[in-house]
Amino acid sequence: MSKRKQVSAEEKRTRMLDLFHEKKDFYQLKELEKIAPKEKQIIVQSVKDVIQNLVDDGLVDTDKIGTSVYFWSFPSKAKIAKKNVLDNAKTKLDEYQKKLDKNLEIIKKEKLRKEITDERQALLNKLKALNEEKSRLESELKKYEDSNPVEYERMKKSIEVAKEAGNRWTDNVFSVKSWCKKKFFLEDSVIDKQFGIPGDLDYIE
């Protein structure tokens, strides 16, 4: 029997993000522990750690509604993270470009003197290092060319829609409780226990 291929931690992160981006929905941990092993071949024991790792990196959002904790991540979330990296890379690139221009000017003056000095050699070595760093940053920039800040606004709207839906259902629950109290003369605690309604259920601010 062939040994099952082990999935790396990075691959688990990628698969979990793909799951969120494909479903575009909100999940509790217990739901993800059922879905991830079946659809993304992530073992159930790893699901919690993978999600927490993504939350720590800002790639997955989480919030507590009542007594339940929900997780979600829309495709735009990854693009926003890429945009932040892109902005940082651009800033660094500008800084290195200024340093490069300054050193090029110094080297130009040194070449006019045509003297092979230790200072000139040090500047040449620094120039080489700056050029290499510039090339690395330019390559990094190309990875994030598809970043689109417009997606950020779309994500905000999606969160607002989700919040409104949550409050709408909370309102429905309160309406049903009120009807039950009037119809059957029941206490809040009895209704909550009977129907599994969290005692601290409230609207999302």
Summarize the structure.
This protein has 205 residues and is mainly alpha-helical.
SSE arrangement:
Blueprint: H1 9-23, H2 29-40, H3 44-56, E1 61-65, E2 68-72, H4 75-113, H5 118-143, H6 150-184, H7 188-195
Antiparallel strand pairs: 1-2
Helix pairs in contact: 1-3, 2-3, 4-5, 4-6
GO molecular function: double-stranded DNA binding
Keywords: Coiled coil, DNA recombination, Meiosis, Nucleus
Pfam families: LZ3wCH, Mnd1
Rounded Rg: 28 Å
Q: What is the H/E string?
A: HHHEEHHHH
Q: Tell me about the largest β-sheet.
A: 2 strands, antiparallel
Termini gap: 55 Å
Morphology call: elongated
In helices, the fraction of residues equals over 70%
**Secondary structure: number of strands:** 2
Strand content: under 5%
Largest sheet strand order: 1-2
Average pLDDT confidence is 77
Backbone structural class:
mainly alpha
Low-pLDDT ranges: none
Structure explained in plain terms:
A two-stranded antiparallel ribbon has the order 1-2. It starts with 8 loop residues before the first helix and ends in a 10-residue tail after the last helix. The chain is 72% helix and 5% strand. The protein has 205 residues and is mainly alpha-helical. The protein has helices at 9-23, 29-40, 44-56, 75-113, 118-143, 150-184, 188-195; strands at residues 61-65, 68-72. α1 crosses α3 (44-56). The model has no long low-confidence stretch (mean pLDDT 77). It contains seven helices and two strands. The radius of gyration is 28 Å and the shape is elongated. Required for proper homologous chromosome pairing and efficient cross-over and intragenic recombination during meiosis. Pfam families: LZ3wCH, Mnd1. Residues 150-204 form the Leucine zipper with capping helix domain. Belongs to the MND1 family. InterPro entries: LZ3wCH, Mnd1, Mnd1_HTH.
